[in-house]
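The following record pairs a protein chain with its ligand, CU-O-CU linkage.
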Amino acid sequence: PQTRTYRWTVSAVSVPGTNGQRIVVNGQYPGPIIEANVDDRIMVYLTNGLSDGNGTSIHWHGLPQPNTPFYDGPSGTSQCPIPPGATLLYNFTLGGWTGTTWWHGHTDMQHTDGLYGAIVVHGPDDLLSLPCDSDHALVMSDIYFEPVDESLGPYLAETSPEGSPEPVPDWAEINGRGAGVHNDWKYFEVNVKPGTTTRLRLINAGSIAPLRVSIDGHVLTIIEADGAPVQPTRVPDLVLHVAQRYSVLVTRAEHDTTEAFWIRAVMVEKGFGYNNPNITLETRAILRYTSSNEDTSTPGLPLPTTTPGPPPDDADWDKLPAFDEWALRPPAAVEYPPPAGPALTLPVAFSVRQTQSQQWRSYINDTSWNVLPLSEAALLEDIAHVNEGRLGVAVWPGDQLVAAVAYGQTVDFVITNEDINDHPFHLHGYSPWLLGVGEGQYDPATARLNTVNPLWRDTFTVPKRSWIAVRILADNAGYWTFHCHIAWHLVTGGLFQIAIPPQAGSVPAVIPEDIKEQCRMWL
Ligand code: C2O
């Protein structure tokens, strides 16, 4: 394993042609990619260069943070925000994790303003022995013209109970390019050699919109979901909800590859401002067969003229199953049995509704975590408690929304989505096994749970008015956040935590002084 060291400065830049701002790293949007090998150590010196007085922090989405829960990133739950001008070193190992993920801001709604980038971790079983000749990450995101601080106030104060309250994104982009509204807006281009197989790592780094992704003239073969190997599954298109990732293999016979093809990402508008005629739902990138290795928008080359649909002579296209994330399975050759034995079941009811004073809030079990961030002093207490193995008063259900779980316990979370839209849920520190999904209320007598070959992943869609059941083995100590990844729901309280003490008899990880110092600087 290697140590990979990065020096990043977070700052805000304005976006030409819009009122928007982007929060960027080292001036780049999307931010720099982290590319590493399994078990490498990652060291990121993160400097807060924001001039608006706000703190900042970064979460390494999906990475397990073994023995370093305090470097997980969410402000107000695992660290205090890094004050303006200060630097924090995030220092962690990848702990066996491989696959496709991303990092993003986890203070206020900075991620909505663009504070994110890709993480690619290579491992020996990277490609499941499926050959691929090149590998490209596509960071895709919905985009708001307004700086998020300007839309959050009206959302919180929304007085009309009609329709969809969340601010509606204006367009989407792929690697910072694409929607084509501005004439000078170039398309991101993936350049591949004719006759080869390409791995595309699709990442939805957006704030609310699920993205339906397809490539004209190509079948997508899904091989990875959030780091989990997937039994290769051919689909005409797929949908990534916010924070989800898929790797797909794409290929065409050599004699068919003299062209450029559109890669399309369409915001699935149901659930956020349907009937809004002013938004551009589809964004595009280009898959170009060429001998050039450089991924870039090349001026002067013709744009694709392709339309959505199958490759020529594809007899199977019509028989391909429609994409269903809950139908994906691990490869037959690999087993991920969830531990048997008595499980602790934690029921989690999620809803989005207005308070009596008409403010929109997200609720877990009728409680909204609406005091983010915790006071720095309280947080310092909290993170000290969990790391020293003496948990504070953990309440479930209750005001604090912290569920205490014993080390080594098997835990089933049964999440019921009472809302009329789908919600992407994410657990920090773990990749739960996905045991089951069903409409309406969960009934243990009739629910069918898959404990034989469930997929595991860190972000999963809970369909509208449905339940899901996911399982973990609580073997990663720390305070871990569990939340809806739609940015508006996270910031308005759709979050709870699980608190897992260190294994009995083990030496608890000691919170580094520099993490505590972030809190003291605010006092
Ligand atoms: Cu992608 Cu709480 O995180």
